[in-house]
């Protein structure tokens, strides 16, 4: 039986990097026996332009019918001033919600070859390997009520609701414990329980789950301290689990510790293992169309897709090793300081990874 | 007319570092003509132990009657398991709210002598000088409704409300613009307007204020990107203005960029210039009672107190120069890598600053 993968190139550099993922998947099919069918659809600004919505119905229908989706990136200045519910990122939020992709896995891994790309001292970051597990379909991103209203005294106010039910916390908590179990067995739950009741419940539920995972050691940290500790000594962490908004901020902070966000993949999973995979970086309008975007984050997202949604762990490892190999061979896209190694563009980097499989 | 300053030593290292501030203020009074009266009161765990509340009524009454208050630090493990509304940090939140201390100013300044304390590369942080202006009495910290309730389906949920009125945003926005005007004229407003309506209004109000400050250039950044940019290239920022929760996280992140949170002061001001001043670091139960805590963040908080609440800018500068001088002379407390310079304890460091006045 063939796996169905939906390709969502998106905007700006999105199509350029997804083209390399297409090459990679087709090579895995022809040379390594991967049974896969690729379909294409619009998400983001291209969806607005072609079909009038950042998440067209046809895209959602195809996504529901697929085992996994691979996204390039969405957004760009041309959609900055359109109505709020047509903005490209609305498509992203909508597909996460519609598919129930509650578990966002964001590894921050520093390839030994790239230790000099980091703004942190080598002795602080070398060997960095953190996994952030971020809740993705709840919290303040989706909480009701929300909006802008006029108070009784005539002053306008904007309001949002941060809400987490025990069921949602347990679900993402288990994703965190499971991930820690597969890694170094250390889970740090991040909250703001000294101020927020929603965090108080979050902490209580995490404590409750701990009994089911005696092989995992659970700790708690306030979000402000977590931001500090990521800068001070990031290697103290193995897996961090947190809510949607805290995860948004901390995962970007952790990603930047590596200095190479062009290298970092992510997975957003539902309860059955279906997922949306995407590089952590954005659509980079400033460099789009030049063929210089780094495709490695997208290729590493393919590796996550193979592992988590297609159950092809061996092929996933093959892809990861191929990426490590081209880096060790000195190939560098511009964002990795192209000049120091052998400077290559998007397609040449993709070809090199395929050749190194 | 003599200024009234309320001293709030607080818990653990709090009394040790506030003792040095006391020395400093008395020296400024006896040698440099500062007209000041010092009173003492309890805040935090000491308030709970002595008077049954983290913010005793007597403390609040004295604070209302003072021009400024200087806080050491609150909290410690001995109060971790008492009821929520008696926790030491509740006293801090309560005094901020009761005195209307809406503007929290947190400078992240790297002394040239301490560039090696940072976990970031020297070429990324040397000369770092950021001011974070954090809203301190609103947002999700104080928003209603909040709590833990049981949903119709029997599942418990925790909820909090993030709410900002135009009046609150304008007030803190002006504090940001005014601060930028006194510095390099660049203000970056941080929000999450692509997801949150409260941030949408925040951004709109900031844009509206910009017309009144033609000498300040205003930019906007999403909070996730701001966390990234602080790590990637922190010197791009001059003043950042943001809400209570985002400010909590970003200011701690920015503080840690310097590598020396034992050095960083803060001010929390009301609309008239009355303020509460405190070091950014906590009560450090692990080192309390040993006489080794770094008093410099507290002494620099005294400098902010002199400048903002007592209108004694010259004395403030005198204190700041004395601190720079003792660092240049090689004096170091343990947290600054005592071994490399001349290793000193809390009292010796305080004495050296007083001597360098
Ligand atoms: C584009 C934006 C809505 C999104 C988010 O905040 O989740 C992005 O920052 C991310 O982290 O994937
Ligand atoms: C102790 C805590 C409630 C407080 C806050 O979150 O405001 C602290 O982190 C701070 O930043 O002063």
Automatic annotation (TrEMBL), chains A, B:
Its main location: cytoplasm. Its EC number is 1.1.1.85. InterPro entries: IsoCit/isopropylmalate_DH_CS, IsoPropMal-DH-like_dom, Isopropylmalate_DH. Signal peptide: none annotated. Mg(2+) binds at residues 224, 248, 252. Substrate binds at residues 96, 106, 134, 224. The keyword NAD applies. The record marks 141, 192 as: Important for catalysis. It catalyses: (2R,3S)-3-isopropylmalate + NAD(+) = 4-methyl-2-oxopentanoate + CO2 + NADH. Pathway: Amino-acid biosynthesis; L-leucine biosynthesis; L-leucine from 3-methyl-2-oxobutanoate: step 3/4. Binds 1 Mg(2+) or Mn(2+) ion per subunit. NAD(+) binds at residues 76-89, 282-294. The keyword Manganese applies. Residues 4-353 form the Isopropylmalate dehydrogenase-like domain. One of its GO terms (molecular function) is 3-isopropylmalate dehydrogenase activity. It comes from the Bacteria. It is found in: Cytoplasm. Homodimer. Catalyzes the oxidation of 3-carboxy-2-hydroxy-4-methylpentanoate (3-isopropylmalate) to 3-carboxy-4-methyl-2-oxopentanoate. The product decarboxylates to 4-methyl-2 oxopentanoate. Belongs to the isocitrate and isopropylmalate dehydrogenases family. LeuB type 1 subfamily. This is 3-isopropylmalate dehydrogenase. It comes from Spiribacter pallidus.
């Amino acid at each position: 039986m063939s796996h169905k993968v939906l390709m969502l190139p998106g905007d700006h550099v999105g199509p350029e990097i997804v083209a390399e993922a297409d090459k990679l998947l087709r090579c895995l099919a022809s040379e390594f026996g991967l049974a896969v069918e690729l379909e294409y659809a619009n998400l983001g600004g291209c969806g607005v332009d072609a079909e009038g919505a950042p998440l067209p119905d046809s895209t959602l229908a195809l996504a529901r019918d697929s085992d996994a989706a691979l996204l390039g990136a969405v957004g760009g200045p041309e959609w900055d001033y359109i109505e709020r519910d047509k903005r490209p990122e609305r498509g992203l939020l909508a597909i996460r919600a519609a598919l129930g992709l509650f578990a966002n896995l964001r590894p921050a891994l520093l390839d030994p070859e790239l230790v000099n790309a980091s703004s942190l001292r080598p002795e602080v970051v070398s060997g960095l390997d953190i996994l952030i597990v971020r809740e993705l379909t709840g919290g303040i991103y989706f909480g009701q009520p929300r909006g802008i209203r006029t108070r009784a005294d005539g002053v306008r106010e904007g309001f949002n609701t941060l809400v987490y039910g025990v069921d949602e916390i347990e679900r993402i908590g288990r994703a965190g414990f499971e991930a820690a179990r597969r890694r170094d067995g250390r889970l740090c739950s991040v909250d703001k329980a000294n101020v927020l009741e929603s965090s108080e419940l979050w902490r209580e539920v995490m404590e409750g789950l701990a009994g089911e995972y005696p092989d995992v050691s659970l700790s708690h940290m306030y979000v402000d301290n977590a931001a500090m500790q990521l800068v001070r000594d990031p290697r103290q962490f193995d897996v961090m689990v947190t809510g949607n908004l805290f995860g948004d901020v901390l995962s970007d902070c952790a990603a930047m510790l590596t200095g190479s966000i062009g290298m970092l993949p992510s997975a957003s999973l539902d309860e059955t293992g279906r997922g949306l995979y995407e590089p952590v970086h954005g659509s980079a309008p400033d460099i789009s169309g030049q063929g210089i975007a780094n495709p490695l984050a997208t290729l590493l997202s393919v590796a996550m897709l193979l592992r988590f949604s297609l159950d092809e762990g061996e092929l996933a490892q093959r892809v990861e090793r191929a990426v490590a190999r081209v880096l060790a061979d000195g190939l560098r896209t511009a964002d990795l300081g192209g000049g120091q190694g052998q400077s290559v563009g998007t397609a040449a980097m993709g070809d090199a990874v395929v050749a190194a499989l």
